[in-house]
Each structure stands twice: as structure tokens, then as C-alpha cells.
Amino acid sequence: MNAASFPLWPFAILAVLLALGYRQSRSRIVQPATLVRLAAAMLALSLYGVIATFGAGVVPMLAWAAGFAATARFGAPLLAPRGLAREGGAVRMPGSWVPMSLMMGIFVAKFGLGFATGVHAEVLHEAWFIAAACAVLGLLSGAFSARAKAVHRFDSTVGAVRAAA
Description:
It comes from Pelomonas candidula. By secondary structure, this protein is mainly alpha-helical. It is built from 6 helices and 3 strands. A hairpin with a 2-residue loop joins strand 2 and strand 3 (90-93). The radius of gyration is 18 Å and the shape is globular.
């Protein structure tokens, strides 16, 4: 593979993800629905990576779903943003590098899979590798869902307490 055949569009995606991740490293006020949209976008990017590389077979889909479900279900205590505060109908979130780390994880995994596909790496046909790669992508995208769910839970709880007062 020479430099002339190397696509440039992944670097545009990388730039967008870096900008988005940097923005999330700063304290900000967000609507909980915005985090749901980000989680959905990362889920789509992750799932696209699985299907584009391995197809929609049983092993890739089950491994991805298991990784996603594990993090989405059990990841909140570790991944939930700390120091949330309600401001009007929105939530003030402290800055965190966790979202950028997760985005870069998905990007690097997807980029690596794309490269491996481009060079026709034999490991792409090994069941253990397929399961591991798909589970990692599922874990990473599930982390966004865990964070969005934690913020939504905070917003609902604080809103209910204020309404009752």
C-alpha cells in the first residue's frame, strides 16, 4: 500500500472526533438527549465497523452485543460523569477526557480493522480474533450508553425531587 492509495477521509473523521472529544473535556451544559444522540452515533460507528469488516454473522453480532450489553449495563459506576448539577432543563457536566478516550478507542479499532482488511490479513478469518474485535467495539460503544443513561437517570431523579418539593 503506497501513500497515493491511502484514503484521506479517515483523517477527516479523526479531526471531527478529536474536536468533539476536546469539547467534552471542558465543563459544559448539555441536554441529556444530546448525550443519547452521541451514544447512538458511537453505537452506529462501532456496529458499522463490525458489519463492514466481518458481516452480520452470528459470532460478530453476538460478540458485539455481549460487549455492548456488559458495558451499558454494568459500566455506569465506573464511567458515569461525576459532579453533575441541574441547570434549568439541562445538566452541567464537568469536563472529562473519558469520551475522547472512548472515541479514539473506536476510531483506532475501526482504523486497524480497515487496514487489516486492506492488506488482507489472515487473522481477520480467525474466530477468536473476530469475537475479540467485535467485543471490544461493543464494550467501547456501550460505555457511551452507560454515560448517557447515568446522566439521564441523574436528570430524572433531580427533576422528580424538585417537582416534589
